[in-house]
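$ run holo --ligand "magnesium ion" --emit tokens
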Amino acid sequence: MVQKEFKAESRRLLEMMVNSIYSQKEIFLRELISNASDAIDKMYYKALTDDSMTFNADDFYIRVQADKASRTLTVEDTGIGMTEEELEKNLGTIAESGSLAFKKEHDAEDGHDIIGQFGVGFYSAFMAADKVTVLTRSAFSDQAYKWESNGTDGYTMEPAEKEKPGTTITLHIKEDQEEESYSDFLEEQQLRSIIKKYSDFIRYPILMLTETEQQKEDSEETETVVEEVTVNSMVPIWKKDKSELTDDDYKNFYHEKHYGFDNPLKHIHIRVDGTIRYNSILYIPETTPFDFYSKEYEKGLELYSSGVLIMEKSPDLLPDYFSFVKGMVDSEDLSLNISREMLQHDRQLKMIAKNIKTKIRKELETMLKNDRSGYETFFKEFGRQLKFGVYNDFGQHKEELQDLILFYSSKDKELTTLKEYKERMPEEQQYIYYASGDSIDRLEKLPQAELVKDKGFELLYFTEEVDEFAVKMMRDYDGTEFKSVSSGDLDLETEEEKKEQEETAEAYKELFAGMKEQLGSRVKDVRLSSRLKSHPVCLTAEGEVTIEMEKILAQMPE
Ligand code: ADP
Ligand code: MG
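-- output --
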């Protein structure tokens, strides 16, 4: 047997691969199963174009089996297998992808379910194994071959026996180390849960031997029965037609995936088949997760590539202001083997994110229009996040969000949109007035609000800290500026009234000067006010920052 050398740079690449590209060891199983699925897919595509071949679905499966005694884990498939040359080329050269070549060679349209393309996934086996043996026979040859490697010293290859075409990969699982345990990869339950997590929607059955206790016939006693069961669900719900699915199906998926302990308020099922292709199921939860407004909360969607989970929470798919959205995205255009860091710059991912953002916004707009009470339920839970969205990033999301935010108003103390407020404005009203405070009841009694209401103008009640910051960032809504009733100049008087006031102010000049002297540095000025009706005096702020904002700013850590 000839020992062949990995090229020097390949060896380094392999080390880097094994130790840094993948964040979790368990994904090696996902990689091997994906390869097995690709190998079966290739049989399927071959049969599509070659009349002499038939594809009988029952003949194709992936089998995962662990043997504790020999510390081995095997992944077997009945796929296309590899010839001697293919074996050497695909597994002897790191970053050589037979699958990518297959996709290029065949019509891309046909092959787009094939997952592989980077030619590095296979080597992740060395994260869990100190020796890997590949026994493979091509569907187009009678001769099988055995490939073996410990991952560092190159590999060996020799002819071998194999009854049927396909590939069997045997991993010799590493011994447990002090800080690292590998034995989990030999436990049936662990393996099942890894398969469920990453490979549940692989389109071919993944079989595993499972021990179950069964009652013996005509007897009280039980016996252990070993059965082969399919552990993956195969057809993902997001690939099904919307018309086939009920609200309960969506609700079950929400719970199955642990998106939340509550029920979804709304689901959005998206299928896009254009320049970008993806399927997505998104949920707006009914209630805010307990940690939603804390630093611990992580936004993100599950990201799948052709049914294979590649990231549990991809934050790049959601803007911060929609961080409450849960769900998943599956795209066949994404690359499976790239690291998280590279994924952030993936152009496809950016396009999908943009697309999703628009869909969520549209859905909320529709809900606001057609299901007001549903929308208000949503808004009471997550509205604050939308207002933060208006405020953050220097207000650049204003256009997208301004029609989705609601405020309490002096009109019936109900929630209103800015559009509705504006539509109710009398012609002579120049500003959108608001008052900030702790509660609506207190704001109702605010002396500063009297004159505005007296004029027949409506007032927005800002009871959340973010409210005033958000409108300050917005400056105006559809050309109408916001004005706090506690700002110095409300600009409500007629020319005549103004003149009258000036005269009165002049007449009482000395009184005000005396008052100011008494109050000292606690006030900046004492002035005559025209805005008060039943109260003798009120406090106002000068400039952009109102008293309420000053209070909040004073509480903020330096
Ligand atoms: P990728 O899947 O990205 O192409 P891998 O390192 O996972 O990269 O695999 C390299 C190549 O080895 C594949 O492209 C494929 O040609 C071949 N290969 C791997 N596993 C199998 C298998 N089970 N059956 C047939 N070919 C396989
Ligand atoms: Mg692969």
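-- notes --
The CA atoms of residues 131 and 150 lie 4 Å apart.
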